Amino acid sequence: MTEPHSAGDPTPTVLLDVVDLHAGYGLTEVLRGINLRVAEGEFSVVIGPNGHGKSTLLRAISGLVAPRSGSIRFAGSRIDTMRTETIVGQGLIHIPQGDMLFPDMTVSENLALGAFVKSAQKNRAAKLERVYDIFPRLAERATQRARTLSGGERRMLAIGRGLMGDARMLMIDEPSLGLAPVLVEEVYRQIARIAAEGMTVLLVEEDFSRVRDVADHVTLVENGSVVLSGSVDYVLSHPAIAATYLGIDT
């Protein structure tokens, strides 16, 4: 089920448009006809149980998993046949689970690598200044090797590296994974700030309580299919679904 668009509301500009996407690994199909739209400037969240296709969805969008059928458009262009580095060059940046940092490089070196595509090398100093403004702790640890950072600092570094890539949209996979609650709150405050400053965000999360107050749009995924998609209020207006998938008694 998808929330109907009100005739009185202006039609949003769609930045990411995923249509009937099927994808998987080997003989296993993980995504079974996923439809997902993310409007420009929107904070969109994909919620669902572990192992039901949320991470595979991001990997397919970013070109790490080849779609079996369906289409993916970003800023109006088909990207489902593009190489990952070409997709990054379009401004679609994927921040995966586990951060994927270069542990023996310093914080500043990891950030510099975020601007590896030609388009991102312009104004690199200004981008770095912005990252340090959002994550002051990274500025304090600029010369430290990534492997010496705490879990929360590594998560900040991964997000900061994504911002260095001249991003039009960030896809962030479970930023709360493995972090202590106080660090989760800090990381989410910073993500909310990035979104409030105009960045389009597609975020995967398992715990709805962490995104309830910041999400513009929520998509519930189970067994590789969309169960429900719409605003937070629309999702919560379905008591049975909210109780089953979000653990909320409405």
From TrEMBL:
The keyword ATP-binding applies. The keyword Membrane does not apply. Gene3D superfamilies: P-loop containing nucleotide triphosphate hydrolases (3.40.50.300). It holds the Pfam family ABC_tran. Residues 16-248 form the ABC transporter domain. Keywords: Amino-acid transport, ATP-binding, Nucleotide-binding, Transport. One of its GO terms (molecular function) is ATP hydrolysis activity. GO terms for biological process: L-amino acid transport. It comes from the Bacteria. PROSITE patterns: ABC_TRANSPORTER_1, ABC_TRANSPORTER_2. Belongs to the ABC transporter superfamily. PANTHER family: HIGH-AFFINITY BRANCHED-CHAIN AMINO ACID TRANSPORT ATP-BINDING PROTEIN LIVF. This is Branched-chain amino acid transport system ATP-binding protein. It comes from Glaciibacter psychrotolerans.
